[in-house]
Amino acid sequence: MADGTGTSHKLTEPGVWIERIGDRVFPPHVPALFLDRDGTINVDTDYPSDPAEIELRPQMLPAIAAANRTGIPVVVVTNQSGIARGYFGWSAFAAVNGRVLELLGEQGVFVDMVLACAYHEAGVGPLAVADHPMRKPNPGMLTEAGKRLDLDLQRSLIVGDRLGDMQAGQRAGLAQGWLVDGEATAQPGFAIRPLRDGSDLSDLLTAIEMLGRDVRS
């Protein structure tokens, strides 16, 4: 599938985008830092489609930097129902995502893979799919990244601004996640930690550093 922008090679099916960023090589069975995009990495402007409007949330920069420094892959997993609803196309997504990556690069941090799912029950045409396995809260994007990068999902972390991000992490077998502006809760095998202030961020950075020590040992 192509939309006139040369993005077809990143679409593994009409509603799934998978892009490997850079060429860093990781050891087998390494944990990852999974990040939602809109509302987590960048300010959510309600179906972002204009690169000029993209603004980073500075809170996530230290976490990405810590993962980069310790050799942990950073993987973006983002729902993009605006594509399914016809608000914009994959070309606009590519432009916005490129701007996000550019702004991160200007801050000296980077991600290693981006996965996006455009399927939604309110979509049109082939994108009108309810409860697609790739769409969060389903774990498909995380498990697909796990296969492609040979990740240890159980030791991996996820950060997002919606409960659906946390549910995707739990269903993928992760043990913990950080919920932006959320509350701490615990379910069997999965802990949700809040990410609201500097103390919470310090806890996240400590968790990332600990994973990095495991990778290097």
UniProtKB/TrEMBL annotation:
GO molecular function: metal ion binding; phosphatase activity
Predominant location category: cytoplasm
Cofactor(s) needed for function: Mg(2+); Zn(2+)
Active-site residues annotated for this sequence: D36, D38
Pfam families, per database record: Hydrolase_like
Annotated positions binding Zn(2+): C117
Stated name of the protein: D,D-heptose 1,7-bisphosphate phosphatase
